[in-house]
């Protein structure tokens, strides 16, 4: 039986020549986790970084109660209402648009939203995306609270949405200041069979650094590049020279810490 040349396996996607950016497959990136674990903050960084490097990314803000991404990216797509039928139709149209446009897509739903889980169950979503030349990537954002691992279990159980490109992000912001990151996360790593399952299929763990002046950037609704360059919005003054340096160092540290999974990002 012949092989359909239009069908691309996830294994093929993960083993392409990543040195050539033009051949990197478009990415379907799905960040997930409880509230205040850093997924929207990361999303802002990864979209801004990709676009600054000339890579096109479709931004989808599916959080119907708190559309933070839309405040930073005016072109972000959002559902017209919180009705589940409307949200599901919007999500499916996004996927079709991505397949046709060959652009990367990042979808940020509110904590607890089940739209992707339903699609993953109904469509075998990771296989479907891979077959259309899209690399599925899921990023789980967790803190030291063992309850944070519940989301991982829900995606990993029965391989609901468990692509080869799976990243676990420990957010230092969620750790009490007096506790070292290695100690805060040691028990969850050592005792979690689901984390070991992800690592056994070559998933990755990344510790996301803290940006000390993040609240000042958010007050101004600035992008990170804007903040580092001394821009501002409204009546607030621009960041001081020291905080601008903090932003630049944080940006460099983010690039470094995510370097092992750079080919999995938009």
Structural class: alpha/beta
CATH homologous superfamily placement: P-loop containing nucleotide triphosphate hydrolases
How does CATH name the architecture? Answer: 3-Layer(aba) Sandwich
Helix content: 40-55%
Continuous helix count: 12
Question: What kind of sheet is the major sheet?
Answer: 6 strands, parallel
* Series of secondary-structure elements, N-terminal to C-terminal: HEHEHHEHHEHEHHEHHH
Number of domains: 1
CATH class annotation: Alpha Beta
- Tell how many strands the DSSP assignment holds: 6
Q: What share of residues are in beta strands? A: 5-15%
Let me know the average pLDDT.
86
| Spatial order of the strands forming the largest sheet | 2-3-1-4-5-6
Q: What is the straight-line distance between the termini?
A: 35 Å
Radius of gyration: 19 Å
CATH topology: Rossmann fold
Query: Low-confidence parts lasting 5 or more residues at pLDDT below 50?
Result: 1-9, 13-22
Q: Identify the overall geometry.
A: globular
Put the structure in a nutshell.
With 266 residues, the chain is α/β, with parallel strands linked by helices.
What can you tell me about this protein's structure?
- The protein is an alpha/beta fold.
- The chain has a single domain (10-211), classed as Rossmann fold (3-Layer(aba) Sandwich), CATH 3.40.50.
- Helix content is 42%, strand content 14%.
- The protein is built from 12 helices and 6 strands.
- It has helices at residues 10-14, 39-52, 68-72, 84-101, 115-123, 125-131, 150-156, 181-191, 193-200, 214-220, 224-228, 241-257, and strands at residues 27-33, 57-61, 104-108, 135-142, 165-171, 204-208.
- The protein has a 6-stranded parallel β-sheet, sandwiched between helices.
- Strand 4, helix 7 (150-156) and strand 5 form a beta-alpha-beta unit.
- The two termini are 35 Å apart.
- The relative contact order is 0.15.
- Residues 1-9 and 13-22 have low confidence and may be disordered.
